[in-house]
Give the backbone structure.
Amino acid sequence: MRIVQIITRSDAVGGAHIHLLELCKRLVRDGHEVTVLVGGQGPFVRELSASGIPHQSLRHLVRPIRPWIDIRAIWEVRGALESLEPDLVATHSSKAGWVGRIAAWSLGLPTIFTAHGWAFTEGIPELQRRMYLVAERFAARFTTRIITVSEFDRVLALDSAVGSERRLVTVHNGMSDVAEHLLADPSQSPPHIVMVARFEPQKDQGTLLRALAKTRDLPWSLDFIGDGPLRPEIEQLAVSLGLTDRVRFLGTRKDVAELLAQAQLLALTSRWEGFPLTVLEGMRAGLPVIASDVGGVREAVEEGVSGLLVPREDVDTLAIKLRKLLTDPELRQRMGREGRQRYESRFTFEQMYNKTLQVYQEALEVR
């Protein structure tokens, strides 16, 4: 199968990029011809090069909505598709989804759109939600199949008249396993907390810091892994809360699995999500997870069994539940064990890959 994958930005490596990179590596290994079209230059392009994945950088595929540039992007993508002659086009992220689907449709090519969390989900500013909803309803007409990474997002799409039962299918994210020596021991004390997320409006490191400030009487430490435009603001918040001796900002790291193996708790505070990979990373390591109850997070984290869920931006509830985990090593160990078992039974890379490939093959049959 000749497949063209399209994603908007190359200046950052987030969950959608990691998903796409691992998917492409396996597709190539299995004998498929894969080319990635990506906007601009940046760390993701370097990751593709290092993995030997054929790719092309597009000049006009940019993240902001700019109608005249977006029209050029459609023609740019269309030209690339004419040259590559794929059997199937798969798109990721909102902008690449709109541009890529229209370009592929104009050539009569079957298209897949993977929604790594809808841009019209709860938690996004209202005006932005309405704008993205209109755009997704329009783009759904040009789509052979839409993959949602959570059942929450599939139901949201149906309720919002984005796609139909026939077009929409849920394929939960999955991750490759790690070596046994990278499994954590959540029972160790004092507990060390890790949050893996970019410093962008979607994530909410500030709520985690404010909640931890209410538990300063307990021994704990925290690592933030990731970078982004809001990092200076969160660093200043740590200073103002008097937490600088307990919190480290590690930036972007290649050794996330190794860092999680040394932790006792994974935290993820967010304003909105699709189905975050970082939660699966924590479960894979055998860590209990405490996370914002947004998007499809509860489809991964079973409340009270493999972790704890808190309402969006609820500092007080988060502080109470953090205290529960920080003071109970046996609870952390039990939840971490349950999370590991849940990862093994539901969220391995093999399961995700096989289901995704099945959707690709169905799209070709529809054609």
In short: The first helix runs from residue 15 to 29.
